[in-house]
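S.,

As promised, the cobalt (II) ion run. Input:
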Amino acid sequence: MSSGVIVYKTKSEIEQQRESSLLVGKTLAEVASHLKPGITTLQLDTIAEQFIRDHQAEPSFKGYHGYKHSLCISVNEEVVHGIPGSRVIMDGDVVSIDCGVFKNGFHGDSAYTFPIGVVSEEVLNLLRVTKTSLMQGIAKARNGNRVGDISAAVQEYAESFGYGVVRELVGHGVGRNLHEKPEVPNYGKRSSGPVLKEGMVIAIEPMINMGPRHIRQLKDGWTVITLDRLPSAHFEHTVAITDSMPDVLSSFQEIEIAITKNKNITEVISTIV
Ligand code: MF3
Ligand code: CO
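Predicted complex:
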């Protein structure tokens, strides 16, 4: 699926994909409005699937390599690919929610990490740094740069705080397929890797650990957790390369409005937007 060549999108295709990507943000905002201690991750998944289908779209993840849900919900030490189920959200959890939608023939892919109730300043800082590392990576998503410029920007920023940058999972091209070329690692060297060109659409998605970068996968075949079981955070945007500035197709705007209205969630302020 992520094999093959880089597929470039026309301006009108990018507008189609913007619609899919914006719907991801709206879906995550709908989920965020229901986030509170006591709700199960399966209930959140059901809300997301209904919302996506109500908007004439399909959940990208459902059916992907046999995955059975619309969201990946990864709590605390879970890094990514947490499977919705009977787990109950608790006060003090950090909940990363990843969502993809397919509409107009294109996928949008975005993720946000929510601190529920009272979360330590130390953990809030992990969330802020992860979100800001995504913004640092996005700033390099420009025609003529290379993938390694994004990777190095994310890595250098996150590691400057002593955090571990997960290497086994990477960002990716996104379009008519959820995972296309190129791979977009969150670590690497400046001026290395594929050249970024107008028409490329990529998902940039740093996964940053409070402790060392090492991870393992649970026997369920999906859930990735930190080896030391310290918390991890994940933020993701779908971004188009243009002839000038990076064009972020997904949006956190509705999510953040939902957060300000939900007393159970603390706001994650990034130092840059
Ligand atoms: N959303 C993940 C990504 O960002 C992919 C999820 S895998 C799935 O690439 F099976 F859940 F779809
Ligand atoms: Co992705």
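The longest strand covers residues 94-103. The chain has a mean pLDDT of 97.

- D.
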